[in-house]
Amino acid sequence: MRDRRISTAALFAAGLLLAATAALATGEVGTSAPGFQLKGVDGKSYSLADFKGKVVVLEWVNPHCPFSDRHAREKTMTELARQHGEVVWLGINSTNPRSGDFETPADYHAYIQQQGISYPVLYDESGATGHAYGARTTPHMFIVDPEGKIAYNGAIDDDPSGRKPKAQRVNYVGKGLDSERTGGKPDPASTKPYGCSVKY
Amino acid sequence: MRIDTRIPGSAARAALASLALAAGWLGWSRPAAAVASPWMTNPQSQVRLISGDLVAPRQGELRLGIHFRLAPGWHAYWKNSGDAGFAPVFTWKDVPGLGPPELLWPAPHRFELPGGLEAFGYSDEVVYPVRATIAPLAGDSGGRRGVLRLGANVDYLVCEVDCVPHRYDLALDQPLGERAEPDSQTAPLLDRWWREVPLAASHLPASAGAVALASRAEMTLATAASTAAPGELRLELRLRGVTAAPGGADLFFESHPALELGRPRVRAVDGGLLFEVTARRKDTSRPLPATTAIAWTATGLAQDGGPARLALAARQEVTVSAAPPVKAAPPVTRAVPARREGMDRPPPQRRFRGFLAAGDPRAVALAAVAAALITLEAWGLLRLRRRRPAAGYVAEGPARRREAAGFLALLVTLGLLYALSLEISAEGLAGVELALLAMSLVAWLRRRIERPGLARLLLAAALAACTIVPPWLAGRNRLAADTAALRGPSLAPGSGAFFSFTAVSNVDDRRSLDA
User: Fold this and answer.
1) Exposed site from A127, B33, B279, B442, fewest CB < 10 Å?
2) No. of H helices and E strands in chain B?
């Protein structure tokens, strides 16, 4: 009898797990931002729920990707994060530990120091958070509004190859954060992200 | 001119790629009679600007191309790069007397990336054909202008799994003369890649009599009744008069501002091909626009009397109308002649739906799972109830009846799978069948373990997972053919908003037949 009860419980558990996976949204603007609890390169644990009521920017990163690395070197993100001090900025690295692009915390910490990255970078080794948001590229940017809804999904700017001078680029995230600051909604709310594929 | 000097990936891989490219280049080192810029070379790729003419006429069309050779495993991009990357950007130097060059995009291929991501582009070699027009210079009697100095800046990305961006200035001097003299090296190369450029879908090749295809490309987009995700739509593109070429047909979309268009499923229907695509709204907080353009490219097509592989493209202006489900049959659908293939004959699956009262392939899949479980239980593989071992080998009366019931349940399972085959894609059905097979295997393994323990518990969990998978797969692989547009009012979604996109015109004849 006990065995049968265990089987039934296992069946329910598996069912719930699959149902939960199927029900996950994939980062569409206007939907609730999927929650997460991830460990940072700094060893601390970060949860989206901790920042309820604040605007949160999520940036998918990979130091081995030339695009992500270029924005780190050009300080695109750190400067924007500094300009918008009211915003919580989180980098998320969904690189699979088996990928050649995976960085150990020690190496990652050195890279963060070297590039002067001012915000926490989180490990999403399973890729679950990346998949939940539908993150495809590095960088791939999301703005989560104070109500916990996704307000922007897309590229950091309109210059994939970085050929324009920085001042001439349209920084979609910057524009979106300006709108959020004045109580408006980002426009455009979605763009096509560019960069390397996330190394799931 | 590289904007990034990092070479990602392992050194060995880069060395191998360089070696392969070097080997290719040795084969290329014939005397360079071609009108072409020098090759620009990096470990992942080579690029140059080519002209199809040793001497081009002083007035008229000039055929150029951006020629790429890629190291094994690396790819360059189509105009929609897919989930990652970006499309190449070609910036042309202003040349007096030369009209703005028009870039053409050869039919793309699909590349799988880790994590279920995909890219659209080209591997090994690609020429992006470029068409330009030379206008006569005012006061030029023909002798003064002997050469056109052409220049282009090329900004492109190559990816394997890692990506490397490159940027080069390419230049060539194009001799001009009274008559065109085709280049024996580059003209055939350009011809070959020109043929890879999709035809406007409103046309067929001249060999087929230039039959208008406007009425042959029908597109509908409707809410997907079976999916739980808000804002999910199902797009269908029906191309008549074509079949899939060896290697298979595929469908690509240009990036759409409001819709995320997924991976297509294609199947042959009577007189053509049907592409089914899940579309998700990028922004669920805003209404869909009233009209929108969907630009598509269908590749790997075949047609009687046409070229071996044909690609078609169109930008279809579609209207979005919020209409009640039953009366929503769009005019274009009514104009379609009687269809005789499976999804239009009186659907036998309605009978299954009738007694299952669910109208949902997930319910059919669940019923198939239940019937399979009954079979396993009847045959003693599931052993939900512990029974004393039968005395002796001879089956007794009740045992025999139970085993017979097992066969009956198996028959029901097969019937339900047949019903399911009318509702879901072939891949989905294969998945469901595999899950049922896995379920039987797990049950058999579990039966072999006598004592309760972790192994038995794990197998029970695996068994549970196997029972959940078929309904899930059935939901995900549901065919869109049961939308109101194709199956008639009686099977239309019963409630909620109903959007129908109706193709009203083809507005992008990007390539004329004489091209």
Assistant:
1) B33
2) 9, 24
CB-CB neighbours of B6 under 10 Å: 13
pLDDT in tens, B28-85: 434 345 789 999 999 999 999 999 999 999 889 999 999 999 999 999 999 999 999 9
Same fold, B11-135+147-196 and B206-328+498-506: yes
Task: Yes or no: say if A108 and A26 are a contact pair by the CB < 8 Å rule.
Answer: no
Q: Who among B89, B117, B255 is closest to A161 (CB)?
A: B89
Q: What is the mean pLDDT of chain B?
A: 74
CATH of B206-328+498-506, one of 3.30.465, 1.25.40, 3.30.450, 2.60.40: 2.60.40
Q: What is the number of H-type helices and E-type strands within chain A?
A: 6, 9
Q: Is the pLDDT of residue A157 over 50?
A: yes
Stretch B332-337: mean pLDDT, rounded? 29
Residue A24 has pLDDT above 90, yes or no: no
Maximum CA pair distance of chain B? 111
Q: Whole-prediction pTM value?
A: 0.67
Q: Grade residue B498 by pLDDT with cuts at 50, 70 and 90.
A: very low
Specify the residue for token string 């379920």: B439
The Cα-based distances of B271 to B154, B241, B294, B330, B514 in angstroms read 43, 6, 23, 20, 27
- Packed helices B426-448 and B397-421: angle between N→C axes, nearest 10 degrees: 160
The secondary structure of B458-504 as a DSSP string is: HHHHHHHHHHHHHHHHHHHTB-GGGSHHHH-GGGS--SS--EEEEEE
Residues in A closer than 8 angstroms to B254, CB to CB, are: none
Residue found under tokens 């005397």 = B31
Please name which of B340, B257, B250 lies closest in space to residue B296, comparing C-alpha atoms. B250
What does the domain layout of chain B look like in residue ranges?
A: 11-135+147-196, 206-328+498-506, 349-384+398-476
What residues in A contact B467, CB-CB < 8 Å? 11
User: DSSP 3-state assignment of B293?
Assistant: strand
Q: Does B283 touch chain A (CB under 8 A)?
A: yes
Confidence of residue B481 (pLDDT cuts 50, 70, 90): very low
Residue B457 pLDDT grade (very low, low, confident, very high; cuts 50, 70, 90): confident
Topology, domain B11-135+147-196: Immunoglobulin-like (2.60.40)
Interchain contact, B86 vs A160, CB within 8 Å: yes
Q: What CATH homologous superfamily does A26-197 map to?
A: Glutaredoxin (3.40.30.10)
Range list of H helices, B124-180: none
Single out the residue of B8, B123, B4, B9 nearest to residue B69, CA to CA: B123
Of all helices (H) and strands (E), which one includes residue A77?
helix A76-83
Q: What is the pLDDT of residues A58-95, one digit of tens each?
A: 999 999 999 999 999 999 999 999 999 999 999 999 99
